Every structure is written in structure tokens, then in C-alpha cells.
Amino acid sequence: MREFQMAFITSAEVKRWMQVLSVMEQERRFTIGELSERLAISQRTLIKDIQ
């Protein structure tokens, strides 16, 4: 179902936010490096999105 919903989101930033929130729901602890690797984005992009 989530994949279906994600197909309608056109903003790359919003998609990344949804992915980040999904990981945060599943895992309690993670590093920026682990999260950026899992989402296949750079650490800089992840930090920029979070700020």
C-alpha cells in the first residue's frame, strides 16, 4: 500500500521525508550514515532535509 501511495507524491523532498519517517517508525536507533545508506542518498542531503 505504501508503494502505491508513494507513486502519487511528485516532490523528491517529500518522498525522502516519507522514507525517513518510515525508517524511524521501524527502528529506534540509527546514525545519519546508516539512514543515508539505507535510503540511497548522501548524508549531506539527509542533513539538509532534516534541518
UniProtKB/TrEMBL annotation:
<feature type="domain" description="Helix-turn-helix type 11">
    <location>
        <begin position="16"/>
        <end position="51"/>
    </location>
</feature>
<dbReference type="InterPro" id="IPR036388">
    <property type="entry name" value="WH-like_DNA-bd_sf"/>
</dbReference>
<dbReference type="InterPro" id="IPR013196">
    <property type="entry name" value="HTH_11"/>
</dbReference>
<dbReference type="Pfam" id="PF08279">
    <property type="entry name" value="HTH_11"/>
</dbReference>
<protein>
    <submittedName>
        <fullName>HTH domain-containing protein</fullName>
    </submittedName>
</protein>
